[in-house]
Write a structure and sequence with these properties.
The chain is mainly α and 122 residues long. It has a domain at 33-116. Helices cover 61% and strands 0% of the residues. It has helices at residues 2-14, 16-21, 33-42, 54-59, 62-67, 70-85, 92-97, 105-116. Helix 6 packs antiparallel against helix 8 (105-116). The model is unreliable at 11-21 (pLDDT under 50). The structure holds heme C. Heme C binds next to helix 4 and helix 6. Residues 42-43, 45-47, 53, 55-56, 59-60, 79-80, 83-84, 89-91, 94, 101, 103 line the site of heme C. One of its GO terms (molecular function) is electron transfer activity. Residues 1-119 form the Haem-binding domain. It comes from Algoriphagus alkaliphilus. This is Haem-binding domain-containing protein.
Amino acid sequence: MAALLGLLFFQGTTKPEDKATSSHLAFSPDMPANIKAIVDQKCYGCHNAESKNEKGKAKLDWDAFEASKKAKQMATKGKIAEALEAGEMPPAKFLENKPEGKLTEAELATLLEWSAGKKKSN
Ligand code: HEC
């Protein structure tokens, strides 16, 4: 088992190109792990530099967000909070075909708390 793990680890470390091509949010020390996990699953697909969803990409690119300065991040967070509060994201049209993409109550609360600094009211 240790040998197998060693092999997996070895393969994992010898293929850096895998990381560059994977469609996942890059590791960021600034973004809390729980936020990153939700964004990665529920938002990143449409909002990343390589996204085919041109409109989504133009409005919000998490890769750019990660790389941007604190002040810019604050402004973007405000937009995120607005979109979430209005129930606009993920888009309703998209959820018709992919209902599992909807944010759970807990995920929504977590994202709102992070983006708007708000606690859930109930
Ligand atoms: C199915 C693709 C898709 C998913 C998934 C998605 N978005 Fe979007 N998002 C879009 C599109 C398309 C727009 C542009 C909407 C428009 O301009 O009408 C957008 C716009 C936005 C905007 C900009 C709003 C504005 O008007 O400035 C924010 C913020 C946003 N999304 C946040 C999120 C968050 C947070 C998530 C995850 C909870 C998410 N999105 C998931 C496609 C998506």
